[in-house]
Amino acid sequence: MANVNTKPACTRRELDEARFLIRHVFFKKQPVSVIIFAFDGIAYAYVNHCMHMHRPLNCEQDNVFDESGNYLRCSMHGFIFDPKTGECQSPVCFGQRLQSLRLHECDGTVYFAEKHLTLID
Ligand code: FES
């Protein structure tokens, strides 16, 4: 089995200290920005790309959460997303999902566990 601990995304400490982190990687050969955050203690990662008008969620504000902290929110038009599934909760794109990326956590480090992802040096 291939070693899954080869693509570090961040440390658990970084996740716990920041509301969210942004990383830049290649995913399926495309350069993408990735949102990483902890929600209810669990680490999640999504490609930072709103399906509505193809903008990063933090394009207008340095934030990807709504005021309650319970939903991801695109700062362009305010569409909200379930942080655990990436599913859009706003009517126009209801049910569509942000592209999730699998993570693997080991010994205080969070790794990307995606075969088609490479780190940008
Ligand atoms: S571009 Fe994200 S809500 Fe419109």
Short structural description:
This protein is 5% helix and 35% strand. With 121 residues, the chain is mainly β.
What descriptive keywords fit this protein?
about 120 residues, 2 domains, about 35% strand, 1 helix, mainly beta, globular, binds FE2/S2 (inorganic) cluster
> How many strand units?
9
User: How large is the share of residues in beta strands?
Assistant: 25-35%
Poorly predicted runs of 5 or more residues = none
| Helix segment tally | 1
Structural class: mainly beta
User: What is the CATH architecture descriptor of the largest domain?
Assistant: Single Sheet
Computed Rg: 14 Å
The percent range for helix content is under 10%
Distance between the termini: 25 Å
Q: How many domains, as an integer?
A: 2
Kindly report the CATH topology of the largest domain.
N-terminal domain of TfIIb
Layout: helices, strands, pairs:
Blueprint: E1 8-11, H1 12-17, E2 21-27, E3 30-39, E4 42-47, E5 72-73, E6 80-81, E7 103-106, E8 109-112, E9 117-119
Antiparallel strand pairs: 1-8, 2-3, 2-9, 3-4, 5-6, 7-8
Bound molecules: FE2/S2 (inorganic) cluster.
Residues 50, 52-53, 55, 74, 76-77, 79 line the site of FE2/S2 (inorganic) cluster.
